[in-house]
Amino acid sequence: MGTAEDDQSLAAFLATVSVGDILTGTLAGVTRSQTTVLLDDFADDPIGIIDSLDLSWRSFRRSDLKAGDRISAGVIALDPPGRRVWLSRSATENPQLWAYLKALLPGQRLSGTVAAIERFGVFVDLDEGPNHPVFPGVGFITMPELSWQWFEDPAEIVSVGQHITCEFLAFDTHNGEARLSLRATQPDPFQQFARDVHVGQILHGPVIKLVPFGVFVRVADGVEGLVHLSELAASPIETPDQAVQIGDEVTVVITDIDAPRRRLSLSRRQAR
């Protein structure tokens, strides 16, 4: 905790700094988890912090930096209460990539080619984007952002070499990626479904997933609802497989519709 004078000095300095700025300074300390920087324009305290993931997009490992080294880094976040300026050295290692990502706007449509499909998401080689120093594409789609529909393998939604158009969500400063959404370019089937149905309505569909607290049932294309364990059978059960299995066709009744959160509650017990 600094003195009132120190706090005023820090506030005055932070008022001149914005996310995306490039700052220079001297390394004050280097540990496995983070590096502290004494910034040229604020020599009172080593408030610059570089997380280990932000040292380099090329290696993602601790570099050979040492205290006393001079560096330049991009500002990725400001934390006045914590007396910290979070920095990324990767920004100055890859100025073309950093500038491209920083200029993107949320909601902007970007096109590219699916470069790789992993169990955690999909890499996209953007048409207008630069190459990434590590990954096969500078665009990345997480699993939830691939589709409104239920799926287990991202290869069910896209294929390598496919040309797609996505919506830009955010600049991932740690990985140097453009986080994208493919599903945002398509109508949300849940919203139309929610307008067409009502609590108490009887529906039919297959069980698509068993979880400890119940099962999910597909009641329309791209729309799944949860049948809680307590609503699966007339008699109490301990696990969902005591009542149903994946693929079983079941009859359910709607007990609640939460359109903003895209949640549909169903009951198999009350539908009998």
Q: Can you describe what's shown?
A:
There is one protein chain. The protein is mainly beta. It folds into three domains: 4-93, Nucleic acid-binding proteins (OB fold (Dihydrolipoamide Acetyltransferase, E2P)), CATH 2.40.50.140; 96-185, Nucleic acid-binding proteins (OB fold (Dihydrolipoamide Acetyltransferase, E2P)), CATH 2.40.50.140; 189-267, OB fold (Dihydrolipoamide Acetyltransferase, E2P). 12% of the residues lie in helices and 39% in strands. It has helices at 4-14, 90-93, 95-103, 189-196, and strands spanning 22-30, 34-39, 48-51, 70-79, 84-88, 109-118, 121-126, 139-142, 163-172, 177-181, 202-211, 214-220, 223-228, 249-258, 263-267. Strands 1-2-3-5-4 form a five-stranded mixed beta barrel. A hairpin with a 2-residue loop joins strand 12 and strand 13. The longest helix has 11 residues, at 4-14. It is elongated. It starts with a helix and ends in a 5-residue tail after the last strand. This is S1 motif domain-containing protein.
Give the strand order of the largest sheet, numbering strands 1, 2, ... along the chain.
Answer: 1-2-3-5-4
- Which word captures the global form? elongated
Helix-strand category: mainly beta
How does the major sheet shape up?
A: 5 strands, mixed, barrel
Intertermini distance: 64 Å
Instruction: Tell me the helix content.
Output: 10-25%
From the 3D structure, determine the CATH topology of the largest domain: OB fold (Dihydrolipoamide Acetyltransferase, E2P)
The residue-averaged pLDDT reads: 90
* Tally of discrete structural domains: 3
Q: What is the second-level CATH architecture of the largest domain?
A: Beta Barrel
CATH superfamily membership of the largest domain: Nucleic acid-binding proteins
Radius of gyration: 25 Å
Secondary-structure element pattern, one letter each = HEEEEEHHEEEEEHEEEEE
Number of strands: 15
Proportion in β-strands: 35-45%
List segments where confidence is low: pLDDT < 50 over at least 5 consecutive residues.
none
* Total helical segments: 4
**CATH first level of the largest domain:** Mainly Beta
Oligomer: single chain
